[in-house]
Amino acid sequence: MAKKWLVLLLSIVFILSACNSPVYNQTEGNVAKSMIKVNQSIRRQDLSVRPKPSLLVKRGLYVDTTPISLDRDPSWLKAHIVIRGDQLPFSYYSRVIASGAGKNVLVKYQSGLNQSVNVTLNYSGTVRGALNLLASKTGFVFTVSRNGIYWQAFISKTYDVAFMPGGTDYLMGQASGSTSGATSASGGGGTSGSVSDYVTSDMSASQYSNLKGTLSLWKDLELTIKQLLSPDGTVMVSESTTSVTVRDRPTNVQLVGQYISNLNHNLSKQVLVKVQIIDIELLNNYNMGINWSIITKAFNQTDFLIKGNYGTPVAITSLVPQPTGQSTPIFGPQGTGKVPSYTILLNALSEQGKTSIVSEPRVVCLNNQVSVIRIVTSQGYAASVQNTTLTGTEGGASTTGTVTSQITPGTVVTGLTLYILPKILKDSIYLQVNADLSTLNALTNFGPSDAEGNQTSTLIQLPRVTQKGFNQRSVIHSGDTLILSGFRQVMNSTGAAQMIESQTLGGKASQQKNVETIILITPIILSGSA
Predict the structure, then answer these.
(1) What is the largest CA-CA distance in the chain?
(2) Which of 36, 191, 202, 473 could serve as 179's disulfide partner, Cβ 3.0–4.6 Å?
(3) DSSP, residue by residue, 383-423
(4) At a CB cut-off of 8 Å and minimum separation 6, what does 447 contact?
């Protein structure tokens, strides 16, 4: 009996010691550290999404962070002076004020300063106050040194411009007569085996829409500043250093400074443009196109509103205000567990057919500056083949009847090319968007056949390309989504299968695909600009 109790006691001790092994303790510690890191990440995420409070209270002693100049003004600026005069020259007042400040104060004038300007003064107070009053009456500025006063009629100042060197030259859209052309090739040497001519035409070749501009901000800036200067003022625009130097009267220089500050603020505005190109292969029940009423119902009881025109959606507007001061855009109610607008739209479109996102580029554009997105693929093909029959001899051997072939390669470029020109005005964005979306469907061999019906080696390849393009101008609020629809394409295909080289024992099939393309454009004004 005692042995049984002893065995039981040893077993319990062994089990307890195994549970308290170092591996178990290390595992428990790793789990605890992971939980702490997860909780810290959740807190940081909540703090980053949560809008900053309008009032921030910090407990502690108050410390004024206003910069304090260590340079002390001369004591004679605080001396009391009384000066009265009616239509007396400026030079008289400047000397009287200097004499009231002290015997050792000297007065100097800038070269070209008109000292005979008549001024009326009636003042009693400090010397600094008298100098400020005289400066406001005459439009001159003064600089105080230890024992001197220097008067200036003209000052010079240099301003930086928030723009790159160079001008802007762009063409968005289709140029006149750019969709047609002709190409020909002819043989040389002896006799020509083939001559290939082709003409590419378009029924809408005579119709075009574009936005063309040849701009130079530096020329416009110089012309504008000259209108703000006095007849004696000068301006020097340096495109290489992106700066402007102005020499004029202080009031005019201050006016130019305000203009350049506003200009830099407008030039530094940025907008993030998110583009989503969606293809929907519609089901048989939706051969007439997308049923937008189903899409509209999907947005009911959500934080978004679909704006439409005659039953066709135009834009998606968020009912939740965007947090201010965010440097990263928000496409949906982040941090609230709610679904973004594009997810609701994709789910609703999936009910009507197979939905896929073809491309989803993003680009950050400066105000009034063209940005380009180009995602393309280049495919080579045989554009033309030229056969030449040689005559004569070469190296003592006859070459009569020898045929040489020359293949001219071509390149077909397909993909997405997107040009965006934004204009930011308050919380609205004026968008000029030009897009070209193309897909290479097939490369078909084409060429003559011999007497037996077999194709010869003189073959060229004909690319079959599907192209979708649009030139869009619209006004949209920041954070809203612009919907461009109506790009519908119907594709019919047939096929036949044979069994034992007999069509009767085989079968035939046909298929029709209705594919509609939707383009979503979401511009968002970024904060943090100059």
Answers:
(1) 130
(2) 202
(3) EEEEEEE--SEETTEE-TT-EEEEEEEEEEEEEEEEEEEEE
(4) 385, 455, 456, 458, 459, 460
User: What is the three-class DSSP state of 237?
Assistant: strand
Place of tokens 């605080």: 78
Burial of 505: CB neighbours in 10 Å, binned 0-12, 13-18, 19+: exposed
Domains and CATH numbers, the chain: 75-153 (3.55.50.30), 168-199+209-267 (no CATH), 272-379+416-439+466-526 (no CATH)
Helix (H, G, I), strand (E, B) or coil at 512: strand
Q: What would the mean pLDDT of 266-284 be, rounded to a whole number? A: 86
Strands 362-366 and 353-359, by their bridges, are unpaired
Tally Cβ neighbours within 10 Å of residue 5: 9
Tell me: the pLDDT tens digits for 511-522?
667 788 888 888
| Spatial separation of the C-alpha atoms in residues 439 and 416, rounded to whole Å | 9
Tell me the per-residue pLDDT of 218-241, one tens digit each, with 9 for 90 and over: 899 999 999 999 999 999 999 889
What are the tokens at 38? 């997860």
Question: Which residues fall within 8 angstroms of residue 6, CB to CB, at 6 or more apart?
Answer: none
**Considering only CA atoms, which of 125, 76, 82 is closest in space to residue 103?**
76
449, β-bridge pairs: 455
Give the whole-angstrom CA distance, residue 299 versus residue 82.
77
- Alpha helix (H) ranges present in 194-287? 217-228, 250-267
First vs last Cα of the chain: how many Å apart? 90
Residue 430: which H helix or E strand, with range?
strand 428-446
Global pTM value: 0.65
Token output for 37: 């890191």
